[in-house]
Hints:
Blueprint: E1 11-15, H1 20-36, E2 41-46, H2 51-54, E3 62-65, H3 75-87, E4 95-98, H4 103-111, E5 116-120, E6 131-133, H5 142-151, H6 168-180
Helix pairs in contact: 1-5
Amino acid sequence: xxxGLTSDAACIVVWAPNxxxxxxxxxxxxxxxxKHFRRARLLVAARPAVxxxxxxxxxxxxxxxLRWRGGALDRAAMHADVxxxxxxxxSQPSIAILLPNSFATAWLTRRAGIPERWGxxxxxxxxxxxxxxxxxxxSMHQGRYYQQLVSAFNISTGPLEPIVNVTDxxxxxxxxxxxxxxxxx
Length: 185
């Protein structure tokens, strides 16, 4: 196999999309990554708006909340995120899979020293990636788009169904919140 394609990598960091709908549609690809890298520690790097969602996703070992938004003026947040990514795994993360197509995501991942950086070859970031995949020519469901990316790395894809684990306590808190806003069930 090619370097980095082994299913016994120490740590995998999956960059989550920034928008809630896209984050939900990324869950099947994340499940595929989890199934392929069974023994690896699986981290999801996410923006604060979507990070709590990934704490409900089965198979995710930890969620790393990142604050930098790609602007040159917010260097403190960028440096903090680089340090967070560097220390996210007990050992150096071996692979980062970048679901967002942004240049900033690839640049930050490279700055963090993650040796394998995989993603779509878009937004002038190809040179920052160690494995760059052409964007599919055909239009497709966003969930399939993310699965198409992971399948390019010889990761088998499964059903296009997002799965979350919601505890009884979380359900009760949701009921209380809705009732406090006037919902009667």
